[in-house]
Amino acid sequence: MLQEFYVGAESTLIHFLKTKIAVVSLKGFEIIDLEHLNMNRGLPDLREPQFNFLGRRGELKPLAMYRVTDRFLLCYGEFAFFIDNHGSFAKNHSLIEWEANPDYVALYYPYILAFEPNFIEVRNVETVCRRSHSAICFLSMCFCLTLPQYIHNANFRL
């Protein structure tokens, strides 16, 4: 049996949970219950006072949502934070503020990687700390990795 559901914005990512789907869109994050398609839930609930800091940030760019043990990590272009299973700000966790403004993020537990065209940032999601030497200048790394092949290439001229 085919059932349809509607997400009210352009979707960028989808995460499959046990009985639900988490959809990342340009408007934010939405949890869709596959058994009750009319009971969708937006995250975080911006009417809650604990999320007032989101309204003060201006235009937000949702990037990804990851399940990390019993919490969810909501990643935006400027920062990331944890919420619990009830959608509340997770206690004992700080806001992760990126050094740059990443275009993409990826979770490789226990690390979250934030990618910008010229910069990669790696943080431990449990401690929220940056790893030492984890901010990598991506352009320099590419240059160092690709330069030797051009030097040995007969067509390369200075």
Automatic annotation (TrEMBL):
<feature type="domain" description="CNH">
    <location>
        <begin position="1"/>
        <end position="151"/>
    </location>
</feature>
<dbReference type="InterPro" id="IPR001180">
    <property type="entry name" value="CNH_dom"/>
</dbReference>
<dbReference type="GO" id="GO:0005085">
    <property type="term" value="F:guanyl-nucleotide exchange factor activity"/>
</dbReference>
<dbReference type="InterPro" id="IPR052233">
    <property type="entry name" value="Rho-type_GEFs"/>
</dbReference>
<dbReference type="Pfam" id="PF00780">
    <property type="entry name" value="CNH"/>
</dbReference>
<protein>
    <submittedName>
        <fullName>CNH domain-containing protein</fullName>
    </submittedName>
</protein>
<keyword id="KW-0344">Guanine-nucleotide releasing factor</keyword>
